[in-house]
Amino acid sequence: MILSASQVDHKADPDRREGVIGNRPNPQAFLDQSPKLRLDVLDRLHDTSVLSATLFDRDLLVELAKLAAYLQLGKFPAAHALEDKILAAAFFEPSTRTRLSFESAMLRVGGKTISVADAKTTGVAKGESLRDIGQMFNSYADVVVVRHTEQSAVQELTEYLRIPLLNGGNGSDEHPTQALADWYALLKWRPEIAFGTIPDEFRLNIGIIGTPGNMRTVKSFLTLALLFPQNINHITIFSEMADPLGDEIRELTNASPIGIDFSQNLKQSLEYLDVIYMNAIAFLGDGYRFFGEEFMLDRDSKLKPDTVILHPLARGGELCTSLDETQHNLYFNQADGAVWVRQALLLSIFGRIRDVVPTTYLA
């Protein structure tokens, strides 16, 4: 059955709290479509590093989202699942949501965390190589989450690393676990994206405000969008740049049957977009740059009644707070869901799903 945003029972969401605003789709509606977890799929993540969104196919993304939904609903206890594990959060670039959501996720499944919150406090400030730092992580932790300003950083770290590495954003390249949070929000909002084929008249038109070629969240989101060609009608990329894709993502889009075009006029397209993914901040080598500030959205923007907006945050003037209290706001739910999907990812990587999930939930 195709549900519009207005038909979803938001009051049934057990995570809905007084004062939390925006669109809060119920995780149970997603699970109702396919309640059994497929361990054969999730086991593929056991002891695996997550460096790129290309690691995920449709089945793996959907099964992770299902596990995250069960965790969010509190269907089974996981508070002690990783009590013998340590996560190192190594952030050589500033972060709020990614760092805290990973640390929160690890603590919620019983694990411990150690942190690098400032590159100036590490051996990098004295000239130590990332390869050697990777070697040290082997002794200090069981998994490491890394954010770095350099695109090559995760590859350098993995040269001597023997524990799984989770890419928390590397330069202008990728942010794969952010894309998992993005699509967890969308799959809860429209469960039919993941299951079956949406009739042509209901297939999604997605607008992406940003430049996938040099904005890591946008690139990873688009990479996962290409996993659903039967349910996405068209993707429009809004950018002031002549070539917003870059070679790597262009190769992926050229191989996809999804129609993709480019525009510099957002206002003319708003009335047919079902999903808008926006970001304005990119890290380009020597600092942060702001793109697409002319593509602004506020409560007076001519959006379809059921259109939802995603934004990885932090935001600037491109996304007005006047939208926060509307059903267009899926970005707060997107941020909330990051904790649950990262718990699901950690349980899968450590092979602990069988320890916490009753057999009645398994396929």
Please, could you describe this protein's structure?
The protein has 363 residues and is an alpha/beta fold. The chain has two domains: 20-175 and 337-358, 3-Layer(aba) Sandwich (Rossmann fold), CATH 3.40.50; 176-335, Aspartate/ornithine carbamoyltransferase (Rossmann fold), CATH 3.40.50.1370. The chain has helices spanning 27-31, 39-42, 58-73, 97-108, 130-140, 153-158, 176-189, 216-225, 247-254, 331-349, 353-356; strands at 86-91, 112-116, 143-148, 165-170, 204-209, 232-238, 259-263, 275-278, 281-283, 288-290, 308-310. The strands form three sheets. It has a five-stranded parallel sheet with strand order 7-6-5-8-11. Strands 2-1-3-4 form a four-stranded parallel sheet, with helices on both faces. A two-stranded antiparallel ribbon has the order 9-10. A hairpin with a 4-residue loop joins strand 9 and strand 10 (288-290). The longest helix is centred in the C-terminal third of the chain and has 19 residues, at 331-349. It is globular and about 55 Å long. It starts with 26 loop residues before the first helix and ends in a 7-residue tail after the last helix. The model is unreliable at 1-12 and 14-18 (pLDDT under 50).
Strand content: 5-15%
Q: Under the CATH scheme, which class of the largest domain?
A: Alpha Beta
Helix content: 25-40%
Secondary-structure-derived class = alpha/beta
Anisotropy-based shape: globular
In the CATH hierarchy, the third-tier topology of the largest domain is known as Rossmann fold
Return the CATH architecture of the largest domain. 3-Layer(aba) Sandwich
Q: Runs with pLDDT <50, length 5+?
A: 1-12, 14-18
Please tell me how large the radius of gyration is: 20 Å
Instruction: Provide the number of structural domains.
Output: 2
| Beta strands, count | 11
According to CATH, the homologous superfamily of the largest domain is Aspartate/ornithine carbamoyltransferase
* Mean pLDDT value: 88
Distance from first to last alpha carbon: 23 Å
Instruction: Describe the largest sheet.
Output: 5 strands, parallel
Spatial order of the strands in the main sheet?
A: 7-6-5-8-11
One letter per element, helices H and strands E, the order comes to: HHHEHEHEHEHEHEHEEEEEHH
Number of helices: 11
